[in-house]
Amino acid sequence: MSSVPDGKKLVRSPSGLRMVPENGAFNSPFSLDEPQWVPDKECPRCMQCDTKFDFIRRKHHCRRCGRCFCDKCCSKKVALPRMCFVDPVRQCAECGLVSQKEVEFYDRQLKVLLGGGTFVVTLGTSDKSETMTCRLSNNHRYLFLDGESHFEVELSRISSMQILTDGTSPGGGSARPSGMLLHYKPMGSQDVQQLRLEAVEDKKVASFWLAAMHKAAKLLYEARDQ
């Protein structure tokens, strides 16, 4: 399934232009659906400052949460890649802050995940391990593991993810990521499989990859709970 090309199409919604997969089944697991807008008749006042709307004070909808605000409380346009908008869109202050943090993930951490890291990989309770490169697929839907063998883990089928650490970093800071423990269901199976990754060789690159994967997991769980 991962070999199927993911074509894109440009669609126009009330919120703006979006570049989305032609087949909705190939949406990124990090993506969020557009919210239902609060109907105009149900919001006579700004849902932040309580200003009453009139011919001068117009109402605006936040493209992320769908709530209704005055221009002062919903004036900034911020990039919203999780909803595939081509251009920055109007958002309330609270949503704008969240979206700005997510833009950092798309600009930095996502590139790290696509670049990959090298790990010693152990499948299940096996005594055998293999050195493999683990990276996120270009469509963000799979983890590719390549070594002497090759296999894939679909992100949507991951049930739990735990980042492993090895003590504290120099200076007494937070512990540096050293590995990852995944539980997932292989394609065509309902049995949960365990996958353990431990950093090897360039541990600095692997540590950055694991830290990025930790942030990716937060977005993944949020998208599932939408």
Automatic annotation (TrEMBL):
Residues 40-95 form the FYVE-type domain. Pfam families: FYVE, ZFYVE21_C. It comes from the Eukaryota. Keywords: Metal-binding, Zinc, Zinc-finger. InterPro entries: FYVE-type_Zinc_Finger (IPR052113), ZFYVE21_C (IPR032031), ZFYVE21_C_sf (IPR038632), Znf_FYVE (IPR000306), Znf_FYVE-rel (IPR017455), Znf_FYVE_PHD (IPR011011), Znf_RING/FYVE/PHD (IPR013083). GO terms for molecular function: zinc ion binding. CDD domains: FYVE_ZF21 (cd15727). This is Zinc finger, FYVE domain containing 21.
